[in-house]
């Protein structure tokens, strides 16, 4: 029995990624990553030398990097933070390459940004803005399945 091969053109290309923040599509996205960190506690069982794991929860986090076209971080968070208000957002990411097997769409809920840069620049360098964030819920809207 031979191995099945995946055609190389089916690997998805990140160039086709898109992101919506509270329903508004962001045209200046440079890169995006969201992930789940699973929290475990060690469980030791009688007469067993192995350390087992018990899931105790999870935490969502990620980073949104933008081409520095607008003052996005300051606009979203700055003034509200000074007023003692932390805004909460919804993000939807989509990755769909026309040459791949399908699309991947994920919604992240209760998104809070952890920090934003007030000012930063370097000579002869295109600027980006990184916005690390956390989220408390997610929905797997579309997944790319095996064919």
Automatic annotation (TrEMBL):
A Pfam family the protein falls into: DUF2001
InterPro entries linked: DUF2001, XkdM-like_sf
Top-level taxonomy: Bacteria, Bacillati, Bacillota, Clostridia, Peptostreptococcales
Protein name: Phage-like element pbsx protein XkdM
Highest rank taxon of the organism: Bacteria
């Amino acid at each position: 029995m031979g191995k099945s091969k995946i055609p190389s053109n089916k690997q998805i290309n990140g160039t086709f990624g898109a992101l919506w923040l509270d329903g508004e599509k962001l045209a200046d996205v440079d890169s995006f990553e969201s992930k789940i960190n699973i929290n475990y506690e060690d469980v030791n069982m009688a007469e067993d030398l192995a350390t087992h794991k018990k899931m105790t929860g999870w935490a969502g986090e990620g980073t949104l990097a933008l081409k520095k076209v607008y003052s996005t971080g300051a606009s979203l968070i700055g003034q509200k933070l000074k007023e003692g208000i932390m805004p909460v957002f919804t993000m939807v990411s989509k990755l769909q390459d026309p040459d791949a097997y399908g699309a991947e769409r994920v919604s992240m809920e209760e998104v809070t940004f952890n920090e934003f840069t007030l000012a930063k620049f370097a000579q002869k360098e295109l600027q980006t803005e990184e916005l690390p964030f956390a989220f408390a819920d997610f929905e797997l809207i579309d997944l790319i399945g095996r064919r």
